[in-house]
Amino acid sequence: xxxxxxxxxxxxxxxxxxxxxxxxxxxxxxxxxxxxxxxxxxxxxxxxxxxxxxxxxxxxxxxxxxxxxxxxxxxxxxxxxxxxxxxxxxxxxxxxxxxxxxxxxxxxxxxxxxxxxxxxxxxxxxxxxxxxxxxxxxxxxxxxxxxxxxxxxxxxxxxxxxxxxxxxxxxxxxxxxxxxxxxxxxxxxxxxxxxx
Length: 196
Prior knowledge:
By secondary structure, this protein is mainly beta. 4% of the residues lie in helices and 34% in strands. The chain has one helix at 165-172; strands at 9-15, 19-21, 39-44, 60-68, 87-89, 92-94, 96-99, 105-110, 114-116, 120-130, 139-145, 149-152. Strands 2, 4, 6, 10, 11 and 12 form a 6-stranded mixed sheet that branches. The longest helix has 8 residues, at 165-172. The chain is globular.
């Protein structure tokens, strides 16, 4: 299915970023992804694609870029955003056809390996592109901006939160995501019992 930039395509951030541990180049083993992993759902008006062929399109992909808090986007011209020097990991996601935690069949872009190299309050821009036209550059379709989230230093990081039902559902379907059964900040304390 060929897509043109239009109001017929809707993007919905199903899982917003909430926190992140600042990443350091050269310390890959200690790098932790944005928590929870951002998940963006795409939908197309039934009048345009009644059979929902977009769900199996190999031509759609999404790129994540970092926006500082003060960056106010007033016009979305569709220009290709440059690779973000302040991010590490997989900045691009192909389209996944999956069933969500409500067993609804949908199309999702999943960013399970994004890290940020600078502390502060940030947002993410997720831009959707179509590469169906052979020999031409990717065509911008639309984008969506995340809510603000905090990127903190190790001393201020309290651990990864428990993985959401949506993350677990997608992991069960083969998506590579780091899962946690419980927040790291919740640990079993040692109880000392004194006998009389």
